[in-house]
Design goal:
Order of helices and strands: HHHHEEEHHHHHHHHHHHHHHHEEHEEH
Shape: globular
Distance between the termini: 55 Å
Structural class: mainly alpha
Oligomer: single chain
């Protein structure tokens, strides 16, 4: 990790490896169902390839987007996604699939607006909290309007209903507040409220409460609601250490429902074995390390907050998916990022990877290397735009401090100027007192200076006695020398 562009190259490599692995496993796990439904083993795989290509196009576009433009468009993008979430609930406009009215079907292509809403909210939330950072920001500044906007988006998603996307949005909101520095007591209160809300959601709908019951008591209905989770465990056990071989899964022969989507990790474990499953977890673990490393090395508060939030979201979603496949969590329907079948999810996740890769190119060492011409063959081939260095806006320079007890505004300005005493814009309210202090300081530094008195900013009997040229250049007034005028004349 000593190379300046190591983070960028690792993000690109992980995105490519996970996408290629996902395409291979989607082809393997969906071939039987595709033949039975459409007569071709490549129907679902072809759709996944198209969305993967579209995802890499938006990945490249995300690399070219300037940070300022990204922040400027975040709020309009969030408003557009909120409107889309409202429209998808209208019968005749939104399409119902797997019990959720959450898709638009345009020219035969399904688009899920909730996936776009998660990205827009993450970018806008990071922009909002980065703008309101500082010592004088209050708790109200951090929570409003972030929490009301999150409640609006969450409410629209719950109405679909879509528990998995609701959980993803909750992860994004909590990550934003945590990395923004919300007080621990308030953060724990919000986590407790969100947990209570999740319990209510899990127990109010019939299918959600059935999933919770199946998790708490797997043997209660093994051929009903607990069938899918039970078959996933059988697939993992059947794979052993080395796996049955690529394409040799038996669970995909209609033994495991949604084998190409929510439970694709079970097919990975069956065909590639325990080692294949560990390799997938290792890729997500490496991405977690690289993403948090980018966040720590970023000097832009917006990029730091957004990168940490996006990394937490992707890793959290992967953890939940793998957790319910192996039986550690109840089934929620969250997909395995870049691996599970799902066109909109794949494209939007690649967009997030592209934004994180863009943040990696904004590390200080990476900016210096790119502007020095060390962009490498990959950057020169794709003609990726060179990033701009972050220039922080010093709000303290334009803010007038309020008067406080025990000191004048001038003295406080002196203390806040450069952290050492007198600031660059420090001015004493009495110019004559300032001249007297200046004269005493110069006399203390130069023992050869004459002992003349300083009166009203002018020195009588002298100036510098050892330097006749400066005294001759100064203006004589009543036998004295104006030291300031004389020094200006010497500079001329």
């Amino acid at each position: 990790m000593a190379r300046p562009l190591a983070s960028f190259h690792l993000v690109v490599t992980i995105a490519v490896l996970l996408t290629v692995l996902g395409l291979v496993m989607v082809l393997s796990s969906s071939s039987v169902e595709a033949v039975a439904s459409a007569g071709s083993a490549y129907g679902l795989f072809t759709s996944q390839v198209i969305f993967a290509i579209l995802g890499f196009v938006v990945f490249y576009a995300a690399l070219q987007v300037p940070v300022r433009l990204m922040r400027k468009l975040s709020f309009p993008a969030l408003c557009v996604t909120v409107v889309m979430l409202a429209l998808v609930l209208i019968p005749g406009i939104g399409t119902v699939s797997q019990g959720t009215r959450g898709w638009f079907v345009i020219a035969g292509i399904s688009v899920q607006p909730s996936e776009l809403a998660k990205i827009a909210f993450a970018v806008w939330g990071a922009h909002l909290l980065a703008t309101r950072r500082g010592e004088h920001s209050t708790l109200k500044d951090m929570l409003i309007p972030l929490i009301p906007a999150a409640l609006i988006v969450t409410g629209l998603i719950v109405l679909q209903p879509d528990l998995g996307t609701t959980i993803s949005l909750a992860i994004i909101v909590l990550a934003l507040l945590w990395f923004a520095g919300l007080p621990l007591r308030v953060f724990l209160g919000i986590v407790g409220t969100a947990s209570a809300f999740a319990v209510v959601l899990a127990l109010t709908a019939g299918y959600r409460s059935a999933r919770v019951r199946a998790f708490l008591n797997p043997g209660e209905d093994p051929q009903g609601i607990g069938y899918q989770a039970r078959q996933a465990k059988f697939s993992l056990a059947d794979g052993g250490i080395w796996g049955r071989g690529l394409g040799q899964s038996r669970a995909k022969w209609n033994y495991l429902p949604n084998a190409h989507n929510d439970f694709i990790f079970a097919i990975i474990g069956e065909e590639l074995g325990f080692l294949g499953g560990v390799a997938v977890i290792g890729l997500f673990g490496l991405f977690a390390y690289v993403g948090l490393r980018i966040a720590m090395r970023s000097v832009d508060p917006f990029l730091r907050l957004f990168t940490a939030t996006a990394t937490t979201w992707i890793i959290g979603q992967a953890f939940i998916n793998i957790g319910y496949v192996v039986g550690l969590l109840p089934v929620t329907g969250l997909q395995l990022p870049l691996v599970s079948a799902g066109g909109t999810s794949t494209a939007t996740t690649l967009l997030m990877f592209g934004l994180i890769a863009n943040a990696a190119r904004h590390e200080p060492e990476a900016i210096a290397a790119l502007h020095a011409g060390q962009d490498g063959r990959f950057g020169r081939l794709l003609r990726i735009r060179k990033p701009e260095a972050y220039l922080p806006i010093r709000a303290a320079a334009t803010r007038v401090p309020a008067p406080r007890r025990g000191g004048s505004p001038a003295n406080r300005t002196r203390r806040e100027g450069d952290g050492r005493g007198r600031g660059a814009h420090d001015r004493d309210p009495d110019p004559r007192a300032a001249d007297r202090r200046t004269g005493r300081a110069r006399a203390a530094k130069d023992p050869q200076r004459g002992t003349g008195r300083t009166t009203n900013g002018r020195t009588t009997n002298g100036g510098r006695n050892s330097n006749s040229s400066r005294r001759s250049n100064g203006k004589q007034t009543g036998g004295g020398t104006d030291r300031r005028t004389g020094e200006r004349g010497n500079r001329r």
